[in-house]
Each structure stands twice: as structure tokens, then as C-alpha cells.
Amino acid sequence: MTVITQKRRAALVCLFVLVLSGASELYAxxxxxxxxxxxxxxxxxxxxxxxxxxxxxxMDGHDAAFTVGTRGNRTLVLFDNTHLIxxxxxxxxxxxxLFPNTFIASVKNLFTEAVNQDKERYRxxxxxxxxxxxxxDAGAQGTHTINGKKVTVVEKDVVLKVSxxxxxxxRAAYPDKKILMTRTGDTYPSLDDRxxxxxxxxxxxxxxxxxxxxxxxxxxxxxxxxxEVWYLTPEYRRDLLGSGGQANVSLLPIQNAMxxxxxxxESVMIAESIVAGFKGKFPASFxxxxxxxxxxxxxxxxxMPAVLVELGFVTNREDAILLSDPAGxxxxxxxxxxxxxxxxxxxxxxxGFIALK
Length: 357
Known about the structure:
The protein is α+β, with helices and mostly antiparallel strands. The chain has two domains: 5-119, no CATH class; 122-349, Aminopeptidase (3-Layer(aba) Sandwich), CATH 3.40.630.40. It has eight helices and 17 strands. The strands form four sheets. The protein has a six-stranded antiparallel beta sheet with strand order 1-3-4-5-6-7, covered by helices on one side. A hairpin with a 2-residue loop joins strand 11 and strand 12. The longest helix is centred in the C-terminal third of the chain and has 30 residues, at 252-281.
């Protein structure tokens, strides 16, 4: 096992995790590839347990589990925990793990076909990030003594920084999606401007969009603190379909209600995922105020699943410390990103839940 013994963690428990990405290249001149060569050829993650002689390949949200056999024999690969495929087996020779070229080519084809099928399914094509307030509208403010200095936490500044960080993270994670912001600086788009931006994004038949408005809270009660995520009150019905070009206008109310109900369910899922993201990033001392429903303007005017995130209270000193700290703002951004990523993964793997669009 000289190729990977440097990664051994214990004598009896050896889990090798090797990560390498880059251009795929098959080594046609060789009959089999070593583990580093296989990593380069596939551009993926490979986990291998030499005690069990089993491994798993992860790539683009899919995985293939394999068992190491003997040279010239075949093995069964379990793809995405649903399909069994017979392929030329990886084997060991002189203590070195080797992958036949035919194994690499077959696995690569499996992942390529799966990724191509993913592109044909319902997907989140765009994410709208809406930093609240801006320009002449400062939003909520709170002044506190932090580390011996007077610090004023201004909502419009805090939410812009978190949104900019979130934008950068989403762009890096999803280069194939449209990531848009309703404002990128200290400007004041009106509430109508914000929803027009969101509702004007062109989408194909199998594409969806989500809307995330970012705010900070305030209260006369300086002890009030914590984060919360809001979605549109289920009783409120938006006009999502209009009447233009509809062959059967009598069905519009039913179709509209069904679509709005689906958007509400998806909004709740986004809200719950973001709350879970906060819980994973912040200690229990920073309380969750949960998921709530309200008829916020930008939420009820957006024709898509939409949530409004309240990061914390600028009027509470403990929350203000987090909101005035660059590391704290990064945590807020990461928490929202984690929640969105969880929702996007579930949505796209399911093919778009009910897919009423």
C-alpha cells in the first residue's frame, strides 16, 4: 500500500480520502491506473478501505461503490445506491491498488450520463438575494459599547455585507446558476423595484427561482435577540398566473391556488433549512426564534418561493457584537448558504418536488 500509506490514521481503521480535481485524462498507454492516476483521470473523490477492500467514488452529487477483486475478474459497482453494474474489477498488485482503464472508462460514462440527466430535470436556475433597505433608508440601528468603544450597528450596512458574502459563495458553488442581487451598494431600490427584478428573470420550462430577503431585527425590548426566518402567510393568495393566453380561464383560480400552495411549501422548506444552517454555525447561546409567517411586501409580491431572514437584533448588545464582527457576518452568510444548498440539493434530486410550473 505504498501509494497511500501516508494517509493512514490508525492500524486497524484506515480510511483513505484523497481529493483531486482537474481536467480528466485517461492514461491510454497503461492497462491500469494507480490511485493518483485514477483521481486525475476522473477528477473526483475516492474513498478506499483496504481492510474491507471496498471503496466509493463521489462526483457531482453522485456516487459509485465498488469492491476490489482480482486481476482479470469483474466486480459489481453500486451506482447511486440504485443500480448494479458489472465492470472489470480494481485489484492490488505488489501492494498497489490498480484500476483497469476499462473500469475508469465505465465509471466515467456512468457519471457523465447521470449529470446529463440531471440537466434535464427541474433545477434551481436563479437565486435572488435582496439586501434590505439601503441609501436613504438605513433600516434599524442600535448603539452599544463594545470593547470600550461606542459602536452603531446599521441594518442596511450589515445586510449588504452578509448578502455580498453570500453572493460570492453562491457564485463559486453554482457557476451554472444566475445569482442576482437587488442592490450591490448603498442604493435604495424601492420595494416594487426589488420584486420586479426577481419576477423579470427569464426561466425555461424546467427551471425555478428562489428569493431571499436579508434583514436585521430591532425591538424596544433590548433583551430580545436571536434569528428568525419568515415566509408568506398561507392564507394570502398571490396572482401567479394572470389571465393572458389562458385557454380555460375558469381553471385559473384552481391552478393559481395549487401553484401558490406549492410555493408556500417550498418557502417553508427553505426557511427550515436556513434555520438549520444557523443552528449548525452558531452556538446554542444565540437563540433561534424559529420559522414564522407574515405578509411582508417583497415576499407576497414575488412570484416564486420566497423567505425573509432576520439575522439578529441590532438593539441587543450580544447580537450587535456578532453583527459588527466580520467573522460573525461570515457566519451569517455561511448559515444562509448552507440552508439554500440543502434546499437546492433536495429540490433538484427530487426533480422539482411536485413540479407544477
